[in-house]
Amino acid sequence: MTGLLESLIRGLGNGSVYALLALGFVIIYKATRVISFAQPALMLAGAVAVSYLAEVTGFYAAVLLAALLIAGVALAIERIAIRPMVGRPVFVVSIITLGIDVVVRVVVNGFIGRDVRQVGDPWGFAQVSLGPLVVQQRWLAMLLVTAVLVTLLFAFFRYTRYGLAMRAAAFDQETALAQGVSVGMVFALSWGLAGFLAAIAGMFVGTGQGIEQLTWVIALKALPAIIVGGLDSLGGAVVGGLAIGVVESLFQSYQGEFAPWLGQNFAVVTPYVVMLVVLLVRPYGLFGTREVERV
Prior knowledge:
Structural class: mainly alpha
Main location: membrane
Mean pLDDT: 90
Helix content: 55-70%
Keywords: Amino-acid transport, Cell membrane, Membrane, Transmembrane, Transmembrane helix, Transport
Distance between the termini: 53 Å
Number of domains: 1
Shape: globular
GO biological process, one term: amino acid transport
Strand content: under 5%
Strand order of the largest sheet: 1-2
GO cellular component, one term: plasma membrane
InterPro entries: ABC_transp_permease, BCAA_transport_permease
Oligomer: single chain
């Protein structure tokens, strides 16, 4: 039982990172109806920014500055590359974000170099005892920070003027425009928020193990998370991210014992297996909006 609980905590910690990335995907999608494939690059850029800034300002200040910096980069991307494409087919804009991802990663890889860069986090692989459980401090930090950010994010959407404007634009852009909502502002703010969350996720990805040029691949696990939770559901993004993290962790712990015939490292593909199952059973996700087309 102890091993199971420790595996669950590890899964929830890693799942928190997937949830932050998934929230970025969903926020942009709800505002623009575009799936942004630039999130992996923004995550990697955030981690690199933390690693350099931590050498000057200290870790915690570096995290905040890096998150704001990447939010600014995301705003610039939206204004320069995405805003001129408003009105174009959604597929075209999504392909553009894929190109943006490649360009940003090429630039960021120049700052990473060939060696693994550390983000300067205070946790590393240090462990802490919670009664009979022994867990890594970074998993608890992931859970705590994600819980705080998700709470603030939901409060922002529920109680602030800009959050309500984003909800209105996500529901019906034409009606929102008629009511005086600046849809352009909503687009920009969605990218800024996604960049901020991606930077925080990148920092956590680099804790303990550091970052390298292929670290961006981890961000792809947010795609199964948004499919599981629902592409247009913020709550679903959180649930989906945590679920993917837990399933992956359980397979890492027990697959070799109970299903060795699946081969080694099957846990790596479990997020995509879960995504496939959900697509077959509930294509719009657990919490997504079911679209009905009349013909």
